[in-house]
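The protein record now logged underneath.
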Amino acid sequence: MKNPTSISPERPHYPREMLPILITGKSGRMGLAVAEATEANPGTVIAAAHDAGENLDEAVKAAKCVIDFTVHSFSSSLIEAALRHKVPVVMGTTGHTDTELATIHAAAKEIPIVHAPNFSVGVNTLFWLTQQAARILKQDTFDIEVTEMHHRHKIDAPSGTARRILDILNQETGTSYKEDIAHGRVGNIGPRKPREIGMHTLRGGDVVGDHTVMFAADGERVELTHKASSRMTFASGAVRASLWLKAKPPGLYDMQDVLNLK
């Protein structure tokens, strides 16, 4: 294996072509997948791995990029350590508060950060397709509904990926998340509102992540769907983002930047 068994006080020396990665949440589902993806990529090596309660500062100091898929409450501590050591961050954590997001945005003025709700190449293609579809399939003819399903352990809803889809739809249709998104429906609610966008969250089993955007009109329906069957799609995308970030100046980027879809 390419990863060291311990973290030395000084940053270890690796071949110039290999990027030393810190993996946070090393014991979690995504942490294990990122470790596997890092090992599989010839351009990356595991410099350190971290779990809650361990020395974060030493782990960050050992790496030249951090990949984080933990919980939003950990992000501020991670960003502070990354700033101290000027280490870029690839972050797939979702569910941040406004204050936590402000911390990430402020840090991006000093270090490069890729922050994305989903690192799958397929999902980012879905984002792009959703944008194009919303420009063509106007709300005066097509009603828009979004569904997402994840495993029973997921703690935030809607998912970060679904929130990004809704952001795209709001932007393209001139609607508002607060005023126009209907989170499920129950009771005698009356007919569908003209600018309404439906959002439906499902949880159960071990589903990695399913997302569908539906445009429904009289006589026809267009559905854009992405289904993930392995966390390796997200992990491999995050490793790809870490390599892309090597030559980038400070700034806040997303996976659309990495894939040159903007």
In short: The chain has two domains: 19-119+231-258, 121-228. The first helix runs from residue 29 to 40.
